[in-house]
Amino acid sequence: MSTTDTTGRTAAAEGDGPAGTAGGRRGLLHGLPWLVWRRHRALLRTALLVTVAGCAAFAYQRIGVQDFLHTHGTAPGLDGRLVTSFQSKYGAMFESDIALMQGLPVLIGIFLGAPLVAGEQEHGTVKLVTTQSVSRSRWIAATLGLPLAVAVLCTTLLSAVFTWLWTPAHALIATGDWLAGGPFDSTGPVPVAMTLLLTSCGIALGMLIKRVVPAMAATAVLAMVGSVLWAEQIRPRLGTLRSVSYPYDSDNGPRLPFDAVRMDDWVSTADGKLYGFGTCVHSDAAEACRAKLGIVNRVTQYFDYGQLAGMQWRGAALLLALTAVVLAFVVWRTQRRPL
C-alpha cells in the first residue's frame, strides 16, 4: 500500500516514483508542484489538449481566410458585397471562435479557480497540509503557481494564434465593430489578463465559501456582473475618442476610416460646443432653435483601429492590477487565518 504526503513522495516512490527513483532520476515536477499536478492532472491535461486542438484549428482556418482575402481583398466597399460574401462563408466560424475565446476565461475561473482551494477545504485535505513540515507559504505558492502558469500558457497561445487569424480580416468580421463585437476581448493580451483575474477571483471566493459548488456558482455570477461593468463602464473609456465634424445640412455623412468604430453623434456650434444629437429636432421651429443656439455642424466620435492595441494593453494592465490585489488577499488570508 502506498501513501502520499505533501512533499509529493509515496512510500513506493522512496525507491521508484515520480519524485525520485532509486537511481536519483528526477522529473520536471517534484515535491509540492508534482502533488498539485497529480491532484488536478485531469483538468490541466484537458486544458493543454484543448489548447493544442484550438491552435491547430485556428491555423487551419487561416489558410482558407487568407485564400479568400487574397482573391477578393480586405477593404469592404460601399456596396457591402465583400462583407456579405465573407460573412456567408466565414461569419459563423468567427462567431464560434470569438464565443470560445470570450468564454474561456469564465470556464477556467469556474472549473479551475473556484475548486482549487475550496476542494481542499471541503475534503479536509488542507488540514493535513497544515500539520506537515511544509509551510503555508510554500503550499499556497505551489497551489496557485502551477495552475495559474498553465492557464497563462494556454490562453497566451490561443490568443496569439486567434489574433493571427483575425487581424487580416478584422474589417469584415462582426460588421467591423472590433470594440463591442467580441474581437477586443478575444485577441491580444485581454484574454490572458481576464483569465488570470477570473481564476484568482474564483480561488478567493472558494477560500471564503469553502464549498466547491457554491464557489463555482459565485464565480459564474461574478463573471456575469463583471462582464457588464467591463463592457459598459470600462472598455469604452480605455481610449480617447476622436471626432470629425461636417456641416449640419450636408447630405453626406462623416468620412470615417473603414475600420473605425462609431461611438456617438452630436451637433455643435462653430466654436465646438456640443449639444445632444436630438437637440431642436422635435421643435416646431427647428431652424430658429438651431439659430438661437448657434448649431451649424454635426459631430461624430469614433475609435480608430490604430487605437486597438493601446486600449487592449491599458485594459490588460488594469485587469492584472486587480489580479495582484486578489492574489495578495489570498496569500494574506492563508497565512493569517485558519484554513
TrEMBL record:
Q: Where is this region: Disordered?
A: 1-24
Q: Where are the transmembrane segments?
A: 42-60, 98-118, 139-166, 186-205, 212-231, 313-332
Which GO molecular function terms does the record list? Answer: ABC-type transporter activity
- A Gene Ontology term for the protein's cellular component: plasma membrane
Record keywords: Membrane, Transmembrane, Transmembrane helix
Taxonomically, the superkingdom here is: Bacteria
Keyword Endoplasmic reticulum listed: no
Q: What is the protein name stated in its UniProt record?
A: ABC transporter permease
